[in-house]
Amino acid sequence: MTSTVPALGTRTAEGSALQAVLLDMDGTLVDTEGFWWDVETEIFASLGHTLDDSWRHVVVGGPMTRSAGFLIEATGADITLAELSVLLNDGFEQRIGRDLPLMPGAARLLAELSAHEIPTALVSASHRRIIDRVLKALGPQHFALTIAGDEVPRTKPHPDPYLAAAAGLGVDPTRCAVVEDTATGVAAAESAGCHVVVVPSVAPITPAARRTVVASLEEVDLTFLRGLMTQMR
Fold first, then answer.
1. Nearest by Cα to 190 from 168, 212, 169
2. Could you tell me how far CA 185 lies from the centroid of its own chain?
3. Burial state string for 135-148 with b = 16 or more CB within 10 A and e = fewer than 16
4. pTM of the predicted model, to two decimals?
5. Low-confidence residues of the chain, pLDDT below 70?
């Protein structure tokens, strides 16, 4: 199951080409990208290895199989991918249990989308167990659908998660605005045909066709998102 709330269908605001908003989670709505790196650093330290800070740009935003696999290969640590995945999820879940800060503008944007009944999905490479914990802070009522990284055949940077979200909401992916923070997520959204708003969290990302870069979610509201879609008509 990838849906936590029944889909809302294809409702759109009058005069707008925007059909839905699809939101990444880590680093986009919640300030947790640093949490993952902290947990990775602590786990590998316990295994006798020090992570190079430059690797952070490699693992950020990616599926756990890719990021964990890279760190195992880079360090030569004596641990399997399955064992490391359990440790990472356990460590991250403990970390967010102590503190889960929302990104500036996230609560206001979610409330605005809900107030205007814009179909909204949470699309994350994180596993379902993590998404369900974070949803308690974000408010599950804000999302018609949630897609977890362990519930699709291929997660980001493949388009599958965003195509699944659009299909679940009954909308055209080319009429969806995606909000992302990493190159991996941007690649997934663009491959799905969505227009992407990028709020870079760790590594810089440049603007491109169908890609708008902003400094903060505080710059993003419904008028802004509708304007992006209208420009593409």
1. 212
2. 7
3. beebeeebbbbbbb
4. 0.80
5. 1-16, 61-62, 231-233
* Size of the chain in residues: 233
pLDDT for res 97: 77
**String of DSSP letters for 21-38:** EEE--BTTTBS-HHHHHH
At residue 103, φ and ψ (nearest 5 deg) are -70, 150
How is residue 155 annotated by DSSP? -
CB atoms within 10 A of CB 24: 31
Q: What is the pLDDT of residues 156-175, one digit of tens each?
A: 999 999 999 999 999 999 99
Task: Give the β-pairing of 20-23 and 145-147.
Answer: unpaired
Question: ω into residue 157 within 30 of 0, thus cis?
Answer: yes
- Indicate left, alpha or beta for 193 from its phi (over 0: left) and psi (-120 to 50: alpha): left
CA gap 192, 186 in Å, rounded:
10
Rounded Cα distance, 124 and 182, in Å? 12
Phi, psi torsion values for 26, nearest 5 degrees: -65, 125
* DSSP β-ladder status, 120-123 and 211-213: unpaired
Burial class (CB in 10 A: 0-12, 13-18, 19+), 204: exposed
